[in-house]
Amino acid sequence: MKQIIKEDIDNIKDLIGRIDAAFTSDGDKSSSKGSWDAVLVGGLDYRRGDYPIDEQVRILQKGYGTSKRVKGFRYNTSTTEIINFLRKNPNIDVFLFSAGCDKADALASSGAVDLNKMYIIEPYAASSGTKGRVRGAVSKGVPQSNVYVGSSSGRGKGVVSGASSSGSSSHWGALTSVGSMNV
């Protein structure tokens, strides 16, 4: 029952966001159509050794292109906020990294993402919840080959059959290597 109520609340928030997007013009060039090349929903950023979202964006851009405009969202940003941004910026690449991969199923279900342009990078497959959300996104049409994994379940190994190698010996390095594969 609580899950149904939460889903209803999320649907209402999403609808409000779509109405706001349709009837408001905020004059913010950063959110106008066509000004962004990609979105990154990043990994954890609060532990020692983690990188803040701006640095995660720079690590991705090393492979994807330093001139590419990538909007970074922290892993715990509301899904509705990300979906609203994607609706204002259609058909851009969507990179989900590590903890950000938890948003895979919700974003794949939103209708705001070209599923062939969604890249799921090293999800924490040791978590049954994350594994289920990534598999849900694949069942909705994200190509299995767009799921990039490392050498352990903590880096996505075993999350879906047909996944691609991230081509990186390090977790953070997967942002750069996968970015370079999807330019």
Describe the protein's topology.
Layout: H1 2-23, E1 38-41, H2 53-64, E2 70-73, H3 79-88, E3 93-97, H4 104-109, E4 118-121, H5 128-139, E5 147-149, E6 164-165, H6 173-181
Parallel strand pairs: 1-2, 1-3, 3-4, 4-5, 5-6
Helix pairs in contact: 1-3, 2-6
How many domains in all?
Answer: 1
Multimer state:
single chain
Query: Pairing-aware structural class of the strands and helices?
Result: alpha/beta
If strands are numbered along the chain, what order do they take across the biggest sheet? 2-1-3-4-5-6
Bulk shape: globular
Mean pLDDT across all residues, rounded?
Answer: 89
Distance between the termini: 43 Å
Unreliable parts:
20-33
The number of E-state strands comes to 6
Q: What is the helix tally? A: 6
Major sheet characteristics: 6 strands, parallel
Q: Beta fraction of the residues?
A: 5-15%
Order of helices and strands: HEHEHEHEHEEH
Task: Name the helicity range.
Answer: 25-40%
What is the radius of gyration?
Answer: 16 Å
Please give a structural write-up.
The protein is of the alpha/beta class and 183 residues long. The chain has one domain. The protein has six helices and six strands. A six-stranded parallel β-sheet has the order 2-1-3-4-5-6, with helices on one face. The longest helix is centred in the N-terminal third of the chain and has 22 residues, at 2-23. The N and C termini lie far apart (43 Å).
